[in-house]
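Researcher: Good morning. I'm working through a list of sequences from a screen, and I'd like to move beyond sequence-only analysis. For each chain I'm collecting a predicted structure so we can compare shapes side by side. This is the next one on the list. No need for commentary yet; just the structure.
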Amino acid sequence: MISGIIFTKNRALQLDLLLQSIKKNGNDIFDVTVLYRHTNEEFKKGYEKVKSRFPDVNWVEESDFQKDCFDILQKASELVSFFVDDNILYSPMKANCDQIKSFLEPRNVYCLSLRLGANTIIQNYHTGTLCILPQQGSIVDKTFFVWNWKSLPPFTNFSYPFSVDGHIFNKEDVLKVISQYDFDTPNAFEGNATRFLPEEIPVEMSSFKKSVLVNTPLNLVGSSENAAGKDFGVSIEDFNAKYLDGYIPSLEDMDFSEIRGCHQELEIKLTKECNV
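Model: Good morning. Structure tokens for this chain:
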């Protein structure tokens, strides 16, 4: 299996939605570990609820983010993927575990991105800026689109190999990078990596022909300056209150018909739990 490592803070309801989506669309290829953090008793209650709803998940309460990450990675499979709690695996995986393993293990390609595809033409959802797309690429095994990420301007979606939005890596490649710097949040974990990527890493990254994962930036935690919640924003406090009041996110009622970017606001539909 692929070790799926999820980072989450104070967003139990959104985490619930991600876990629903992995259960439905992950083709049973992810062994999921959630590294979670809460900052008050109400958010703690939210995580107690989501833990009860997903007992098969491995749960690790954050104590020292950097140490926790290394501990989880030491126990992880040879292939690892990272997620954040406002990700949604909105479409079924287009390959099984053996296919992905055979594709990535030779290390000719640095990563498999679940958030990219021919449909993800928007670089910035809030401004409408278009992506700079690969001008050349190849299809491997009728499944994987492969391109040279170093041929594109840096820090664009298709030239950004080290992402925690659903990129799958060889574990040893991750450890080689993150062992070179300190980090205390998911943003630092990802952001610092771009400065420490070895020169010799593969120049190619890959995706499916169409993305299967999207990030839905409806609110913020921590000190991030990313734009969020312009169209469908709900505060983390309001979502948590709804969650504790018996509402859960309804994956089935959401509209994923027009995914055009890695980051795209979507309205999260809620439904009242049925108590049996």
